[in-house]
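Milestone M4 deliverable, item 7.
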Amino acid sequence: MKIIFSCIMVSSLLIACNNEIKKTVIACDTHKSIVLTKTKSVRIPVDTIQYKHFISNVYSNDTLLYYFGLDRGRNVIDVFDINNEEYLTSIKFSKEGSKNPLLVTDFYVHNLDSIFVFSSDSYRLQLITINGDIKYNQIVDNKEINELHYNKSIIGLEPIPARIYYDASNECIWIPATPYKREGEEGFFDQSFLIAYKFAEKKLLSFSGQFPAQYSDKNETPFTQSAWFDILTSPAKNQLNILFFGSPYVMNYNWVKDSVIGYNCIQSNYLPKEPLKFKGDLESRMERKRFRIQNGLYLSALGQFGAYKYFPVRHPQPLKKADGHLNDFYSSTWSVVVLDDDWHTVGEMKFPADTYDIYNLHNTTHGFLVSKENPNNNKNEEDYLEFEIYNFIL
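Output delivered:
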């Protein structure tokens, strides 16, 4: 599929940071427990590949289901055929000292002929095919953004990767930007955080984005994961659906008008309705880590396909195990909130701890793809890449 980069966006470069955000009352109720049906188990031999996938993405249609995993150490994207349970290829990238070096830190699979790869180290953005052919190769110039933000805006450097997004309705690539204020500082949640990049003119075109109203309180330091987000879909021209990891609300945002159109709720039975507040020392890395380990959050399963949407939720857990050792980010139980195509909640299913990689989950046309590569799972087989596919069946 050929992408034509025409006039992609019409927007002011900088949207005012101090726009008032209206408080919106949202019905966000608990719901029943349901059971998802495991429709497939996947075991892919990988004995010839020494892999450690930092982030992942999928491509699926009615017949294909491909899994893409970025190994930052090898600087390659490994590609696997889930349906046929086999390794396909590895897309290799040039390292420093070679022509067009690219140390990949993020990528997004639009289709097999249009894979966006980005380096937050060099700001290089490439558009490639599954065969590794380079269709576009550019350095994202953020000079204009930096001049407006006191030379402190950094593109793409965020705690959670896999968040660049190709907005087909506007023919634009969105890239997250680190705001010039640190989380916890007054005014942090009044800032924009999304950059639109226009290929045709090789320039940054728009800087926009609003946090939910629930984050605008200035009396307490917000949840230390509340600024993490994913763009889920572009439901209509000039609109984005954005999930914030600390909140049960999915925002439908008009980036041209800088306005919140509305919210949809994915409230879990296991998490509070309002974003948590961090009352510790923001400068203490250990305090922040312990807070994140103990408290749950909403996780994005990139892509929305078929009749149902699946949203994974990591649950709260004690700081320590029964034996006194610290729990980690992979040791908690978790669940999936299921919504229909109209965003009505169907129910929620709970999954066991120490079994699945809750950061490697994807919505596909074939169902909810769940990785079993949890480092705490003592049943893992190193020579196999293992998945399960679940579906909600009436």
